[in-house]
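Here is an idea for our session: we take a single protein and study its fold together. Which protein we use is up to you, so please pick one and set it down. Once you have written the record down, we can walk along the chain together:
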Amino acid sequence: MLEFKILKKSKKSKARLGLLKTKHGVIETPCLVPVATQAVVKTLTSEDVEKTKSQILICNTYHLHLKPGEEIIGKSGDLHKFMNWQGPLMTDSGGFQVFSLGFGRDFGTGKILKQKRNNEIEYGQQPKLLKITQDGVYFRSFLDGKKVFLGPKESIRIQEKLGADIVFAFDECTSPIADYQYTKKSLEKTHKWAKICLKVKKSNQALFGIVQGGKFRDLRIESARFVGGLDFDGFGIGGEFGDNKKKMLEMLNWTIRELPEGKPRHLLGIGYLEDIPKIIERGVDLFDCNVPTHYARRGIAFTSQGKLDLAKEVFLKDGRPLDKKCSCFVCKNYSRRYISHLFRAKEITSLSLLTFHNLYFFNDFVEKIRKRIKEGKL
C-alpha cells in the first residue's frame, strides 16, 4: 500500500517535507510527477527519465485503455514491466479526458482561462462528442469512432489491471466556463463516483480521491470536506482553476485546510516554473505537469536565466551550454549552437536533448525547494 511520513513542517508557510513509501520505492516530497500519458515520457526511454532525477511518473487510464489496452499491458505483468520503469507510478483515472475531450475541446479552453470569459455552460448541457450520465461517460474513440464507456467501476477495473502504485478515483473535471448549477450537479456525481471507487477496488494499490468544485468557494470546501472524510489514501485536487493564477492559489487555500493533515495531497495538471514555489508553500506534496516536456518539443529550454527559444537563428552563433549552472549531461556535452541546428533541421535528437534538460532542470528546481524547506527558508 502506501506510507506517508511528514518529516518537517515549515514555520514560514504551509510547505512540508515528506517521504511517500510505495512498493516500487520511496518518493521525497514535494515532488514533480512527469507525465507519461501513453506509458512513455515522449522522446525519452525509461532509463533516460530515471537520470533526470524523476521519482514517479503518471500515465493515463483512458489513453492506455484505447491503445494498447490493459489486457496487452497485463501480458507483460503490469505497467512497470511493460515500460521498464523501476520506480513508482500513478495512473490518472480518465476524469480529465471528460473535460479535455468534451467542453475543453468544444470551447477551446484549458484548466485556467487565458482571459476572463462569462459562464457559457449551463446545467443540462452536453459536450458535442461525449455523453455524461449519472453512471459514467460515453466517449467516442478517436481511433475508430466506436463508443467507449468509462465510469467509476470501469476506471478502477482498468487501473487495477495496469497495476500502478497510486490510482485515482473517477471524476468529472469541470470547465472554467461552467456555471454554478452545472458545477454543483457535477460535484454530486463526482462524490457519488468517489464512494463507488472505494467500494469496488479490490487491489492493494493506494487510491486517491479527487476534490472538485470549480472556482466556487462553497463547492470547493464542500468537496474537500466530503472527499477528505472518506477512507482514501491521499487526495488529488482537480478541476479548473478560474481565470487567473491568484484565484488558483485562493482555491488551494480553501481546499487544503479542509483535508486531513497526515495524508498526501496531489495537485493535478499544474506546474509552470513560477507556480511551483507558490503551490508548495500552500501545502501541495505532489503535482503533475507536462510543461517541461511539452515546451521541449517546441524548441524551448528552461534555464536559470529564463526560457530559450532554440528555433531562433541567433542561437546558431552561441557556443555556450543551455545553462552553465545545470549539471545535466546535455549541458555538460552539447552547445546551444548544436541543439539549435538540430531543432531547425527537424532532427528528432533535439527533442530528446531538450526534454532531458528540461526535466532535469525542473526536478533540480524542486530539489532546491526541498532543501530550502529543510533549512527553514521557505
The longest helix spans residues 349-374. The two ends are 31 Å apart (CA to CA). The chain has two domains: 3-289, 303-359.
